Automatic annotation (TrEMBL):
Residues 1-26 form the signal peptide. It comes from Chitinophaga arvensicola. It comes from the Bacteria. This is IPT/TIG domain-containing protein. Residues 35-115, 116-196, 198-275, 277-355, 358-439 form the IPT/TIG domain. Transmembrane segments: none annotated. The keyword Signal applies. Keywords: Signal. It holds the Pfam family TIG.
Length: 728
């Protein structure tokens, strides 16, 4: 009985041990069979003892679990990591298939050839076209042709060669693949080389925080493996793949090349241009119903439609068209009232508020004018009953004369000033896209049917109280702000030549220039510099300071242009020659607040030249605006703008230079900061007051002056009139 019991215990114990052993073996087998993936091996040739590396993923790290053969000859396993197995080619081996075994699994690796030629190491393993690659190995010095190098099948230029080292240049579009060396009909392949290239970046402009997508090849899958810089400043990589990276432009980004560095190998891409955030100038309409087209005008938009986004009260609205200065979209309706926002390449700006309603103003024509100007308002939601629509010009009501659901017509009321234009209809209010400007042309004095002035009027000046002074050859008239004309000094016929005195007792020979000083004294160039007090007392100041047109500068000095001699300055210390240059002495020179001098060099040259403040005698004025030998009419940058010949007056005001382009019947404005020329007014010949698109001037606009409020006065010789141009 004891024997039976003992045998049963032994049997049970054995069974438990077998079960435990089986369980342990099953667990061990599961742990020791990872998902092994073989990617590549190198070199694929060499001598006995050559180290062969097999790369991949999921390898077991127990070297004892591996066996390998070359053409059925055992191969020594040197080391094992999760990503690489290293073997040593056996002695007395033969060329043939290389096989790797791990436990019960077998892998066919590829062919291994016993030969002298062997590619053993490639450095670096990545890079752009034109970069250099070092190829280490043996047997590169053949007896026939020099060693040839191929990268993923594309032949590379060998720069230097020895038996154990080749230096090759990466060819264009090399792609990713093994580096192969061919010598004397033998070949050997080594590690894979990854070709790096940037094919495009989008967008190519923006600023801080702009998300830039880089397309190309050879990028690292892990974001940290790609180092991206904008003109040297590192950027954050937020998305990575072998053919695409998404990065964020860094703080302090500057215009310059975008560079991607991988394992210290740099690839240079296109230039990323830093631009200011977008600027919204006008939104039209500022209110309206579904289906109406909205136009957003401004600066810094992208010509690529997809790079612009527009939001109405936080609702993104698709664009129908886009350019650098204009975006168009269709109002979707249902957005509610809220801010208009434009985002260009992740740079955003907020504009005015938009009202989601039926009543809206699309355009106002003209956008400026004086009392009595006929105005047409195009929009939506108007009443066809004129009296049910009320229009306000900066708070001043105007009477609508005709009305439809989309059009209102009316005249500008008395007392108009620059400000907001709005339409009120049955409790709803619509605001015009732009301020309505009290601007246009008014005849201050004279006219084609008036005998107040003769056609000999030529020079003009204005004092601090907006009194205007105009000269004919021998007389100076004073025009009060309300248009009253009196004779300040001189005789209409000028008999008796030059003579000091008071009022009409004084005599002038031929007045060629006129200016007003800071004390409202009037000075004329009449064979010398002569002074006229506000009371009309005339005295001769200098007989040495002679010339043509006259300017009083912000430095308290007088400047004149003297025909074929140059620019001269006068003060209490005497006369100083500023520049020796032939120039048009009938064109008034301008002096800006920094002391820079602007001149027209010749009556038959169509440009404005520039003498910097502080220039020494002998400085030759440089061309600033227009092409001196190519007259024309064209707005644009200083480099591209065209002016006509026979410029007659230049006037500086703050950061602007006004140019009297009489041949074009135009006044041009040169922005001295933005370096851009625009048109203030251009007309046809004739005589008419009104809005800028209605006014007309005669030929012979001989001079102009500007008052403290920025309004311009022009001598209109052909119409024997002094015209006032309201700009504000």
């Amino acid at each position: 009985m004891k024997k039976i019991l003992r045998n049963s215990v032994f049997a049970l114990t054995g069974l438990l041990l077998l079960l435990a052993a089986g369980g342990c073996r099953k667990k061990h087998d599961n742990e020791a069979t990872p998902e092994m993936k073989v990617a590549r091996y190198y070199p694929n040739s060499g001598k006995a003892g050559t180290l062969i590396t097999i790369e991949g993923e999921g390898f077991g790290t127990d070297r004892g679990q591996y066996t390998a053969t070359v053409s059925e000859t055992a191969v020594e396993v040197i080391s094992a990591t999760a990503k690489a197995i290293v073997l040593r080619a056996p002695e007395k081996g033969a060329s043939g298939p290389l096989t790797l075994k791990y436990q019960h699994r077998s892998f066919s690796i590829g062919q291994y050839t016993y030969q002298t030629l062997s590619v053993q190491r490639i450095t670096p393993l990545n890079g752009p076209a034109g970069s250099s690659v070092n190829i280490s190995g043996e047997g590169f010095g053949g007896t026939g042709k020099p060693a040839a190098v191929f990268m993923n099948g594309k032949e590379a230029i060998v720069i230097t060669a020895s038996d154990t080292l080749l230096v090759a240049e990466v060819p264009e579009d090399a792609g990713t693949g093994p580096v192969t060396v061919k010598v004397d009909n033998a070949e050997s392949s080594g590690q894979e080389f990854t070709y790096q290239a940037i094919t495009n970046i989008r967008p190519q402009s923006g600023g801080k925080n702009t998300k830039v997508t880089i397309t190309g090849t050879g990028f690292e899958v892990l974001a940290a493996g790609n180092v991206v810089t904008f003109n040297g400043k590192p950027a954050e990589v937020i998305e990575a793949g072998t053919s695409k990276l998404v990065v964020v432009a860094p703080e302090g980004v500057e215009t310059g090349p975008l560079v991607v560095s991988i394992h210290d190998q740099k690839t240079t891409g296109p230039v990323f241009t830093v631009v200011a955030p977008p600027l919204i100038n006008t939104v039209s309409p500022l209110s309206g119903p579904r289906g109406v087209e909205m136009t957003i005008s401004g600066e810094g938009f992208s010509n690529v439609k997809e790079e612009n986004k527009v939001f109405l009260n936080g609702v993104e609205v698709p664009l129908s068209a886009a350019s650098s200065k204009e975006l168009k979209l269709t109002i979707p309706g249902g957005t509610g009232d809220g801010i208009v926002k434009v985002v260009v390449n992740d740079q955003e700006t907020a504009g005015p508020r938009f009202k989601d309603q039926q009543l809206g103003i699309v355009t106002v024509s003209p956008e400026s004018g004086l009392e009595g100007t006929l105005v047409t308002i195009i929009g939506t939601g108007f009443s066809s009953v004129p009296a049910e629509n009320t229009v306000y010009f900066n708070g001043v009501p105007a009477t609508v004369t005709t009305a439809t659901a989309t059009t209102l017509q009316l005249t500008v009321p008395a007392g108009v000033s620059t400000g907001e234009l709005k339409v009120v209809m049955k409790g709803a209010t619509a605001i015009a896209p732009k301020l309505f400007r009290r601007a246009g042309v008014m005849t201050l004095a004279g006219g084609p049917n008036s005998n107040t002035f003769s056609w000999t009027i030529s020079k003009i000046a204005v004092d601090r109280n907006k009194n205007v002074y105009v000269s004919n050859n021998t007389q100076v008239h004073k025009i009060s702000p309300d248009g009253n004309v009196t004779v300040l000094a001189g005789s209409e016929t000028g008999e008796g030549g030059q003579k000091d005195g008071t009022g009409t007792a004084a005599r002038f020979n031929y007045i060629r220039g006129m200016a007003v000083d800071n004390n409202d004294n009037i000075y004329v160039m009449d064979g010398g510099l002569r002074k006229i007090t506000p009371a009309g007392v005339v005295t001769t100041v200098s007989t040495q300071f002679t010339g043509g047109s006259l300017t009083f500068g912000p430095d308290g000095n007088f400047y004149t242009a003297r025909g074929f001699e140059g620019i001269f300055r006068y003060n209490i210390n005497g006369v100083t020659k500023i520049s020796s240059i032939g120039l048009f002495d009938d064109c008034r020179p301008a002096i800006d607040k920094a002391g820079n001098i602007y001149i027209s060099k010749d009556q038959y040259e169509s440009g404005v030249s520039f003498i910097p403040s502080g220039s020494v005698l002998g400085y030759y004025p440089r061309a600033l605006i227009g092409n001196p030998y190519n007259p024309g009419y064209q707005d644009g940058s200083f480099a591209t703008a065209l002016l006509n010949y026979n410029l007659t007056s230049l006037v500086a005001d703050n950061n602007s230079l006004y140019i009297l382009d009489g041949v074009s019947y135009a006044i041009r404005k040169a922005d001295l900061v933005a370096k851009e020329v625009t048109t203030v007014i251009i007309t046809e010949g004739g005589f008419a007051d009104g809005a800028f698109d209605q006014a007309r001037f005669g030929y012979g606009m001989s001079d102009m002056a500007i008052d403290k409020d920025g309004d311009i006065y022009v001598v209109d010789k052909a119409n024997k009139a002094i015209r006032k141009i309201f700009l504000k």
